[in-house]
Amino acid sequence: MFLLAPLSSTGVDFPLCLVSFVVTGLLAAVALVDALARKPVSRLRLLGWLVYPLAAVALLAIFLTSQSPANPLFRLRFELSRRALDAAARAALTETPPATPGWVGLFPIQRIEVDQQEVRLVADACGVIDECGLLYRAAPLPRARSKTKVKHVEGPWYHLYAVF
Question: Does the pTM exceed 0.90?
Answer without folding.
Answer: no
